[in-house]
Every structure is written in C-alpha cells, then in structure tokens.
Amino acid sequence: TLLAQIKFVFISDMMSISGLLVILSLLGAFQGLLLALALLSVKRGNKIANRLLATFVFVASVVIFGGVMLTTNYVFELPHLSRIHHPLTFLAGPLLYLYLKTLISKKTTFAWKNFLHFIPFAICLIYLIPYYFQSATDKLQIMDAERQFPSMRGWYYLRSTVLIAQFLVYLFAV
C-alpha cells in the first residue's frame, strides 16, 4: 500500500539530511492542507480574501508534495501522480496577487476579469491533458527518456521560462 511504501522511504532515509528534508516537506504540505481547511471554515472577515489565501496554501501544499515525489523518484512508483502539480504552479502568483489586492482594496466581490489571471494555468492544464490520460507504462517511458536524455526535457524548460516570466510580472505588479 501507499502508506507502507511511504513508511519504508521514511525509515530507510530517516538518518540522511535529504530524508529529513522529505519528512519536513511532507509535514509542511500536510499542515498547509489543514490551514487551507481552517481558512475555508472561517465565517467572519473578508471571505473572498480567506478563500484566495486558502486556495494559495492548498496549491503550495500540492506543489510541495509534487516536488517531494519528483526528488525522491517516488513518481516512478506512482506515475499517475507525475506532473499533477505542474499546472498548479501557475496559480501561485495570481492567487497571491489577488489576495493582496483584495486585502488592500477591501472588496468583497470577485470580478470576472480576475479570471484572466488564470489563463496560464488553463493553458498548461490543456497542454497536459493528453499526458494525464496516458497509461502508467507510457508515462514511465516518457519520464525515463527525460531522465536519460536532457534533450527530451523541453517541457520543463518551457514551463520554467513561462513561470519565471509570470513571477516577474506579478513581482512588478505588486
């Protein structure tokens, strides 16, 4: 089972620094999920801001979990979880920007034009849909090819470039 496999990774790597970082990252991701749930249950204050912050914390937790899956190579055991966090990375900047904008402006409504901030997320998700529907064997072959041949990593370079550009846009917007 998944829990038994995770316990094995923890026990076998517990004494190493990387094992400690994995444990701390997973605990942080779990704590983030709990914080997101707590923020969603708050009845007072700015509900839009609370929902945006809860979504941001949830996204950060999933991205951290995805990073742990990649760095520990656990993604090769559970290939259907590979790249599941990639579109979510494009939500962090817009969510944080909209959260700060909502706090500063004290607005209690969410305008439809704010959904334009989520276009990079939607494009990334649409691009990855064919990958998500592939079999585990096909995903393993793709991941193995990317690991062996750096020239096959075009997706990561493109995603990273767009993500850095998006980060810079939101950095200067704030």
Question: Could you walk me through the main structural features you see in this protein, from its secondary elements to its overall organization?
Answer:
The termini are far apart. The chain has helices at residues 2-13, 17-41, 47-71, 89-105, 119-132, 136-148, 154-173. It is globular and about 50 Å long. The longest helix is centred in the first third of the chain and has 25 residues, at 17-41. With 174 residues, it is mostly helical.
Produce the secondary structure layout.
Layout lengths: L1 H12 L3 H25 L5 H25 L17 H17 L13 H14 L3 H13 L5 H20 L1
Helix pairs in contact: 1-2, 2-3, 3-4, 4-7
Helix fraction by DSSP (H/I, runs of at least 4): over 70%
Straight-line N-to-C gap? 45 Å
Overall shape: it is: globular
- Largest beta-sheet details: none
Keywords:
single chain; mainly alpha; globular
Summarize the structure.
Helices cover 72% and strands 0% of the residues. The chain has helices at residues 2-13, 17-41, 47-71, 89-105, 119-132, 136-148, 154-173. The termini are far apart.
